[in-house]
Amino acid sequence: MINSITRLFNIQYPIIQAGMVWCSGWRLAAAVSNAGGLGIIGAGSMYPEVLREHIQKCKVATANSFAVNVPLLYPHISEIMQILVEEEVKIVFTSAGNPATWTAYLKKQGMIVVHVIANTRFAIKAEACGVDAVVAEGFEAGGHNGREETTTMCLIPLIKSAVQIPVIAAGGIGSGAAMLAAFALGASAVQVGSAFALAEESSAHPKFKDTIIQSAEGDTQLRMKKLVPVRLLKNTFAETIAAAEEQGADAQQLKLLLGRGRAKTGMFEGNLEEGELEIGQVAAGLSKVAPAAEILQEIWNGFLTELERLKKMNIN
Q: What pLDDT is attached to residue 96?
């Protein structure tokens, strides 16, 4: 397929791997890029020099396009941006912050910039800041999320009608059928997180991957809306947060409960009760660990199959 996104990123398939903390290192990013999608290194769980190492290793592992996702609330943001320049990163996805802060700087360095948003107001702001595309992330998504709780099916057409730049759909997309639905609503590509968290190349702990596979409908909830909204698998930590929120905990109290390194404890180290387990609602429909290339190809083949099925429908 050739469209605005495949041309922008110089990729074969309009399928983008999300930059997930503790899951998206160079191995996963390179594997997705080598399979024809756009792999993303997730900088949110990396110290600056660790990120540099991952970028360098990704360059060796793939000759294809890849990107780096940078949460703009990151405490070492200036160092991160300098590393992106020094390592000549071509594509940057920014999230969790104001796009006005760094977009012009990154564009001046010749980089392609994409910003992740969850409502039309920030989509319009991101476009005004000069980003090349936006990721419209619905309520179903894992990890950091929007406070509005707008679902992907509602969000994509709203964003599409609000901006002129390409829209990448995210949230609840783990199959070709979901990808086709996103395209029908106006998306030019999809960003896939939870399915790629299960990839063999993902750095998520095997216990976390097993828990994703075993999860069912209703096993994730959006929590910590007064701090930083995040979708979590239910466990002891999530239940503690839920109880605190029901008692009216404010942002500072939630921050104390969260502490430091909670996501690393759960997703990377495999502490399934006390760790923060970030994953999307689509986890309930995921059933296996597989190579990233196989995951991508299954989504793409499913997209083509569903497209042909709809073409053959008799609507007379």
A: 86
